[in-house]
Amino acid sequence: MTGDTITADIRVLLADDQGLIRSALIMLLSAHPGIDVVGEAADGAQAVELARRLKPDVVVMDVGMPRMDGVAATRQITGDDFTTDPSHTIKVIILTGLGSTPQDVFAALRAGASGYLLKDAAPTELAAAIECVAAGLAYLAPTVTPGVIADIASRADPVRPVTGILDRLTPREREILVHMAHGLNNDEIAKGLFLSIATVKTHVCRIIMKLEVTGRTQAVVVAYQCRLVSPGETA
């Protein structure tokens, strides 16, 4: 028995209504050690079904699919009650060939996606995005990031919340935002809620994306402005 740490492969589910695209993605990802494609879905409803049964780490999700589109499927998969294991959050990367506007990106992120990528990306970029979101971080394609940043920067006050913005958050995300507002770091939140660090990072990234702010500090400002927490409260 050695002291080496064994790292499990990242389990990936592919969802795209075009079989040729799925086959190409499987070939692409099979060249990357540490990534294991465990299933493929032809529409959003099947993606939800397989995600519940296979419990992947990451779902790579197309947007325009029959029966249920990718955004609706993402919303279900990232919901608090989708899995009975609170320490295992399924991350979703939206992979689309559509011309994307900042509003398209925000719609996907508000649904709970941790990443957004275009199908014309370099072959290695998808693998990098999968590894990034599996670690609890966020990934936005360089081709869409400038438009998203410009959209946020163009607002008169990027920190001023819109009415009902906290409704975008799940109960678990609200709970974590409260802990963030009380000054707890990710490690402290993980210990207090009996979650893994990667799970907490995923929730924090989703909170920032859904609130359409640029970072943790602005998310905390929104929590106080919306009176989710009040000055002087203790954790």
Kindly describe this structure.
There is one protein chain. This protein has 235 residues and is of the alpha/beta class. The chain has 2 domains: 10-150, Response regulator (Rossmann fold); 156-225, Orthogonal Bundle (Arc Repressor Mutant, subunit A). 44% of the residues lie in helices and 12% in strands. It is built from 10 helices and 6 strands; from the N terminus they run E-H-E-H-E-H-E-H-E-H-E-H-H-H-H-H. The chain has helices spanning 19-30, 44-54, 70-77, 102-110, 123-134, 145-153, 171-181, 186-193, 197-210, 216-225, and strands spanning 10-15, 35-41, 58-61, 91-96, 115-118, 139-140. It has a 6-stranded parallel β-sheet, with helices on both faces. Helix 8 (186-193) packs across helix 9 (197-210). The termini are far apart. Residues 1-6 have low confidence and may be disordered.
Give the topology, please.
Blueprint: E1 10-15, H1 19-30, E2 35-41, H2 44-54, E3 58-61, H3 70-77, E4 91-96, H4 102-110, E5 115-118, H5 123-134, E6 139-140, H6 145-153, H7 171-181, H8 186-193, H9 197-210, H10 216-225
Parallel strand pairs: 1-2, 1-3, 3-4, 4-5, 5-6
Largest beta sheet, briefly?
Answer: 6 strands, parallel
Radius of gyration: 18 Å
For the largest beta sheet, what order do the strands appear in spatially?
A: 2-1-3-4-5-6
Separation of the first and last Cα atoms: 42 Å
> How many helix segments?
10
Domains counted in the coordinates: how many? Answer: 2
What is CATH's topology name of the largest domain? Rossmann fold
- Low-confidence stretches are 1-6
What is the structural class? alpha/beta
Average pLDDT over all residues? 87
The CATH class assignment of the largest domain is: Alpha Beta
CATH architecture of the largest domain: 3-Layer(aba) Sandwich
Relative strand content: 5-15%
